[in-house]
What does this fold into?
Amino acid sequence: MNVLFMTIAYPNYGANNLFSDLMHEFACNGHEVYIACSNERRHGKPTSLNMEEGKHVLRIRTGNLTGNVNLIEKGFTTLTLERIFIKAIEQHFSGIKFDLILYSTPPITLVRAVEYFKQRDNAITYLLLKDIFPQNAVDLGLIKNGSLLHRYFRKKEKKLYRISDHIGCMSPANVNFVQQHNPEIAKDKVEVCPNSINPIHITKAKKEIRDRYKIPSSSTVFIYGGNLGKPQGIEFIIECLQNNINMKDKFFIVCGTGTEFIKLENFIKKSQPNNCLLINGLPKEEYDELVSACDVGLIFLDYRFTIPNIPSRLLSYMEAALPVLAATDTNTDIGQIIEGGNFGFWCESTDVEAFNSKSSLLCNKNLREQLGANARKYLEDNYRAEHSYNIIINHFKKRFKNYV
It folds into this structure.
C-alpha cells in the first residue's frame, strides 16, 4: 500500500531516528513509502524530492522551527505548515493515492493537511503522539491557561484527535492522560505505540573514545544527551552538577543544544568543575559513539509537567546497554518503566539528595553491568521498530479481511 508520513523531525540522509527506523520497517515489508518533512530555511536548501533507501523523501522548505528560533518566527512557521505541506505534496506526489497517513506531534498544526489527504483518498489516519501540546507549554508557563492562544491550540489539538482513526501513545500513562482530558474520544481509538528503533551494536573501543574527549578512565561516566530547553529543568541539572562538583568517582557529560544551553555554559565557566564536560551538540554518529563509551544515561524533565513525557533519548542509552537514571516530574511513568524493567533508577526532579544517592549506587560496576544488560534486553523485547509497525499494520488486518 501507499504510506504517507508527515513530520518535522525526519533525519538527513545517512542518519537515523525512531521515525526513519519505522519508515524503514514499512519499506522492508513491501509498502511504498512517501515522506514529507520540513527543510528549515536556515539550511539554505530548496524543496527537493529524492529516493533515500527505497523511500520517496520530500524535504519541504519551511521557515525555521527548531533550535534557537525566536518565538515570533517559530509561531509564524508553525501556523503556515499546513498550507506549505499540502501544496508541496500535491505538486511532488501528484497522482499518488495514499492508503495510510501517518503523522507525528509536534506540531499539531498539520491537522488541515491530514484532513485534506484523508478526505481526498479515503485513507486511514494514524497519529504518533510524541508531544501533548498545548498543555506542555501551559505546564512550563509559556502559554497562559485559558488564554486566546491556549484556546486556539487546544481546538487544533482536539480536531487532530477527532480526525485520527487511531492514536498511538508512548506509554500507558500517555493513554490515560489523553482519555481523561478528552473523554469524547472512543477508548479503542487510543493505544500504546511506543518509541522504537532498529538497535545496532557500536564496536569502537571505549578507551579510544574516552581518550578523544579526555574523559578519565577511573570515573563512572554519566551522560545526558539531547535538548537543553525549558522542558529539561536546567536549574535542577545545574544543582545536581554543583552538588557533585570535583568528585573523583563521578564524571558528567552534558551534550546538546537548546535555548537553555547558555545557563549551563555560564555555570561551567564560573565553577570550573574538573568532572564535567559540556558539549554543544554532536552529529548523531559521533554522539552514539560517545554514549557507547559512557556508563550511565541520564534523563531530566521539569518537575512542573502534568503531562507524561517519554523522551526518545532513553532508546539510545538502552541501545548502548547503559543503565538509566531519570529525574523527572511525578506524572510521567518513565520511572515505573525503568524500575519495572530493572534497568535503572528514578527520582523526582526536585530531590538532589535522591539523585546523589541513586548516582552513587550506579558507581558499582557489577550493578551497572547487570542493569545495562537488562536495558538492552528490554529494548530488544519491547522497543524494536517492528513492534510499532505491527501495532499499526494490525488495524489494516482487522479492517480488511483479505489484507496480508
